[in-house]
Design goal:
mainly alpha
Length: about 90
């Protein structure tokens, strides 16, 4: 995936340039970034691309957020109690 596809507005790049950026600010930027990805873009691949391309600094809140996103994407989705219940509709 190209870096232009992975970070079309340069939001992740800019977050790494902000000194003293907070976790909350990174979460807000991350949300805007996720919403700016092209329609059929694989967000997991985009996270990998920006981490490698920007040589994400250890200890930066955006690096941690992206790494957390990668870990969570590999975990199976949890079913809610309602989704786990068998349907009460009978035909």
């Amino acid at each position: 995936m190209s870096l232009q596809q992975a970070d079309p507005k340069g939001l992740i790049r800019e977050s790494f340039r902000i000194d003293g950026i907070s976790d909350a600010e990174c979460r807000s930027i991350f949300m805007d970034w996720a919403l700016s990805l092209p329609p059929n873009c694989d967000s997991v691949e985009a996270m990998r691309t920006v981490l490698v391309s920007y040589d994400a600094p250890n200890g930066h809140p955006m690096t941690q957020l992206l790494n957390d996103g990668l870990v969570q994407s590999t975990q199976p989705a949890r079913r809610t109690r309602r989704a786990a219940r068998p349907s009460s509709h009978q035909s």
